[in-house]
Amino acid sequence: MRIGRRSLAFLLLASATLWGENPNVGTWKVNFAKSKYTADHPAPKSLAVTFKEQPDGLILDAAGEDAKGNPIKIHWAAKFDGKDYPSTGGADSADTVSLKKVDDNTIETSNKKNGQVVTTVHSVVSQDKKTRTSTWTGKDSKGSSETWIVVLDKQ
Q1: Residue 120 and residue 64: Cα distance in Å, rounded?
Q2: Domains and CATH numbers, the chain
Q3: What's the gap between Cα 81 and its chain centre?
């Protein structure tokens, strides 16, 4: 009987290891060499993003310095249900965020201000779970659509 319990415990532990947590979970730092920014969305001087898992969603805390040296401090907690959740310090002054899980490694994020989408982000974690590539779509200062890519490395 004792061997059976040990085997069951091992199988449960192995299952958790194989399926693991959300691959976004952890701390990520921007890889400036691989990222591509725009004039209206310039590269920050520094940026670290930490994701924590919550039931049916994620909690994000980002900190760093923007291109002008101003502090970056973003926080939100959202579920993968497409509903709006409060966001503080958000990109382009977003005050809410909504998440959709496309698959195990892909998330779609909408950043909104006063209910209007200001940026959308398509984020993919690589199969080896070491790189997170986020393709941002928004508007430049003239109102034209633009895209920039932020590549983050797992710490």
Answers
A1: 21
A2: 22-154 (2.40.128.20)
A3: 15
Q: pLDDT tens track of the chain, all 155 residues?
A: 455 555 544 444 444 444 457 999 999 999 999 999 999 999 999 999 999 999 999 999 999 999 999 999 999 999 999 999 999 998 778 999 999 999 999 999 999 999 999 999 999 999 999 999 999 999 999 999 999 999 999 99
Name 58's Cβ contacts closer than 8 Å, sequence gap at least 6.
22, 24, 25, 51, 52, 77, 78, 99, 107
| Both tokens assigned to 73 | 């401090």
d(CA 102, CA 22): 13
Chain position carrying tokens 């725009």: 38
Is the separation of the CB atoms in 123 and 8 below 8 Å? Answer: no
